[in-house]
Amino acid sequence: MTSHNSESLSIAEICASVKNLGYGTNQRIRLYGEEFEVISDPFPDAEGIAVHVKTERDTVRIIRLPATVLQSVRGKTPKAA
User: pTM value?
Assistant: First the structure.
């Protein structure tokens, strides 16, 4: 049995796992108090993983995914502040 940690997961594997969590193209998500339609698959961003989304007003934005989503993919629990 192989165990994955953050060092062994590639960016492509993290993006694929995030997509499987429901953050892929044509999915509807609710983040930061807003509803979005995801119009791209997850991709690496300077500070994490992001997706292109369309708002209810048809504005296209880039949304960085919350650290808790990425931590769940990496198998970590968030650290208490």
Answer: 0.76
Instruction: Tell me the DSSP string of 6-42.
Output: TTTS-HHHHHHHHIIIIISTT-EEEETTEEEEE-S--
Q: Element (H or E) spanning 74, and its range?
A: helix 67-74
Tokens of 79: 């650290």
| Nearest one of 78, 77, 66, 79 to 21, comparing CA atoms | 66
**Which domains, and CATH codes, for the chain?**
24-73 (2.30.30)
Arithmetic mean of pLDDT over the chain: 84
Give me the residues paired with residue 45 across strands.
48
